[in-house]
Design brief:
Length: 260
Amino acid sequence: MNSNEVGTAGANVVGKVAAILRHVSTQMPQGTGTSEIARATALPRPTVHRLLSSLEEHGFIDRDRKSGHWLLGPELYIMGAVAAERYDISTYAADALAELAEATGESAFLSARRGDETICLMRQDGSFPIRSFVLYEGRRFPLGVASAGIAILSFLEDDSIERYLARTNLAEEYGPQHSPENVRERIRETRRLGYAVNPALIVEGSWGMGTAVFDPAGQPAWALSLTGVEHRFSAERRPQLGKLLLEHAHRLTQRIANGS
């Protein structure tokens, strides 16, 4: 095996491990079984079991001896604590979420971009008693799906957007409203308004609005969003909600840039 083949094989293993860890992270805190991980990652079960055992040996994965389910391991917690110094904006974002939830009565969220996905990091529920549970901590969506993913995708460079749409088939899982042309139309509308609207495209009756938060390099790295039932996102109210989102996103972007 030459050096190129070795490099390719190594990259393949890393990709498999990353897919396993990502799936397990979405199944916390109850964990998940080997067969379910194999189905979710489209990997052979023996391969999944072998990699899980190796990850467990190094502390990246843990196993509940009663249920047999796999969970994220203590080594990831340690690494996460170290990485938090650079990537954790929860201290800044908590204020924004609390103020958004109080001002609107809706559930407010912070999501982060991770590659081609967004992952929900924080949630703050508002006073309105009827809530949407489409989004919750740990929930992942592809870019272009849900208001946070639309908001982040919309403010990437045009060539990055086109490369992403060329390699991703959102319509296959999320329906024809997520065809490339429909996504492009939502991107145009998001750039015009400054905020994204998800008009019940994932779950009937569940609406969302989101706006991007930028890192010090000017890249959309996070999103603030609101979700709720349809009648709470009327055409008359959406501009008010969008204005609040934009104000808090701008303030949060500034705090991140200033480190305070």
